[in-house]
Amino acid sequence: MLVPSPWRADFPAIATLQRQDQTYLDNAATTQKPQALLDAISHYYANGAANVHRAQHLPGALATQAFEDSRSKVAQWLNAGGSGQIVFTHGATSALNLLAYGLEHLFNAGDEIVVSALEHHANLLPWQQLAKRRAATLVVLPLNDDGVIDLTAAAELIGPRTRLLAVSQLSNVLGAWQPLQTLITTAKAHGALTVVDGAQGIVHGRHDVQALGCDFYVFSSHKLYGPDGVGVLFGRNEALHHLRHWQFGGEMVQQADYHSASFRPAPLGFEAGTPPIAGVIGLGASLDYLSSLDQPAVIAHEAALHEYLLRGLKARKGVRVLGSPQVALVSFVVEGVHNADLAHLLTEQGIAVRAGHHCAMPLLKAMHLSGAIRVSLALYNDSDDLERFFEALDQALDMLR
Amino acid sequence: MSLPVEAVAALEAFQAVGSWEQRARMLMQWGERLPALPAEDKVDANLVQGCESLVWLVGQLHDSHWQFAASSEARMIRGLVALLLARVNGLSAAELQAVDLPDWFNQLGLSRQLSPSRSNGLNAVLQRMRALSLIQN
Q: Could you give the residue numbers annotated as active site of A?
């Protein structure tokens, strides 16, 4: 095999899927889980579940310890150091909504919120709706032909009225890294808060929130080989002071009377209700697993696979790749073939890819496309997976043309 | 309730296929046989929401029998819609209410096309058809 994955056997679901003749190439939607995660969740439930931060008994102390250990592991993964706090939410979408509601008081009529043209709905709609609530203006940064935010335009559009910049690190459709450093510096120079949607970016390489200099960084566990139902919000200490409490109840409260209450600071103050305890513990186990891997080898493997995918697609007649994807995924359309038909025939052949608008309807509309097929990679994929995909693609195109 | 002639033909054809390729090719053939929808019917009001591709559906009662027409830009969904119309066209209002459409696709070996995770739009087409039949009932 040209590009084998040394980590494939660490993910039990891959073998199961293979026995069902399924080739999983929809990793930008969610990833399969390492055995280490299954063991951690099973251990937690088998050895005594308990609620966190509220019980003095032993199971409660152990659960709280494991839960807080995960918080440290996430902080370490992001190199947060003492610069900020890690808040657990129920997903990346939840985290972005927490920001859009918790920061709402900062916005007045005429203020500007800046996003980019490639945002996933999760990093577009909370800001769009916030703008509507506060009569603020949503400014959309345009892209260049490579699918990267146009920095010349951004320099014009980010200005003294900008209160907040919210951009993706890596596009879930175009697979292009975005020039965060420049955008964040520009926004900060105008006194704006900065939010990075790291849902895709976090999965590829290691990122340092202190080096990035953003105020908030958001990602979801399930795309990073962790359990679903868990999101992460990193907030810089200075920026967290602006964040008002949003959801109420549970251990986020300090003192409560019938008619008034006071609340804890971050992180607990933003973790209303019982958090996803098992999921957070599972995420910790996934991070332990990922930390144990040879990181340069993972990056090299993903780059080799991506190159293989891109070359194979470009070699096929009529295939048009969207943008200039750099890592992780490739979205494409085929001339004269409807993406829904192609998706149908790939599904028939056991190829699990994503078709449609990829939760970025405005981007697809701007590209005058009704949809596209997206192939997205994970560290357990190998070149045989891609060969099966190419074979199925050729067969499908043969039938459709 | 006896099956419409077209439905009998569809059933015979689809129950005879052995491979996914044959089934897919047959779907495309049925889609190609679907009569073209007049341009004046291809308007937003007739668009079925919730499909990956554009699907238009219109339906009217003629002499108390349903007559639906549809079109799509994608070939597989066009085939699925053709098979749907083969089953329902000509039915009375009461017959249309009674017909078990998921079972129909099951008999054709196409039940997976109706699974909730499928976004091809067949489910949306069925719902739209139900809504149309209730309005005019």
A: 359
Other C-beta atoms within 10 Å of A243: how many? Answer: 24
Structure tokens belonging to residue A300: 């090299």
Cα gap A49→A70, rounded to integer Å:
16
Flag if B24 and A340 touch (Cβ within 8 Å). Answer: no
> Using the beta-carbon criterion (under 8 Å), do B120 and A344 form an inter-chain contact?
yes
Token pair recorded at residue A382: 């190998």
**Burial of B12 (C-beta count, 10 Å sphere; 0-12/13-18/19+):** exposed
**Other residues' Cβ atoms within 10 Å of the Cβ of residue A380:** 22
Q: pLDDT 10s per residue in chain B (137 long)? A: 578 899 999 999 999 998 999 999 999 999 999 998 999 999 999 998 877 788 999 999 998 899 999 999 899 999 999 999 999 999 998 888 888 999 999 999 998 888 776 666 788 888 888 888 887 65
Please state the separation of Cα A92 from the chain's center in Å. 7
Best to test chain B binding among A21, A344, A401 (most B CBs inside 10 Å): A344
SS3 B67: strand
Whole-angstrom distance, CA of residue A70 vs CA of residue A226: 12
Residue type, B123: N
| Domains of chain A listed by start with CATH number | 8-25+294-400 (3.90.1150.10), 38-291 (3.40.640.10)
Contacts of A344 in chain B (CB under 8 A): 24, 76, 120
Smallest Cβ distance to A341: which of B21, B51, B74? Answer: B74
Cβ distance A136 to A113 under 8 Å?
Answer: yes
Q: Which of B24, B77, B121 shows the shortest C-beta gap to A399?
A: B24
B76 contacts A345? CB cut-off 8 A: yes
- For residue A239, the surrounding DSSP H or E stretch is helix A237-240
User: Minimal Cα distance from B112: which residue of A?
Assistant: A348
Our CA angle for A75, A81, A84, nearest 5°, is 75
Whole-angstrom distance, CA of residue A5 vs CA of residue B94? 59
> How far apart are the C-alpha atoms of B133 and B137, rounded to whole Å?
6
Residue A345 near residue A400 (C-beta atoms within 8 A): yes
> Residues of B numbered 33-62 whose beta carbons fall under 8 angstroms of chain A's beta carbons: which are they?
51-54
Q: Which pTM value belongs to this model?
A: 0.94
A392–chain B Cβ distance below 8 A for any pair: no
Domains, chain B? 5-135 (3.90.1010.10)
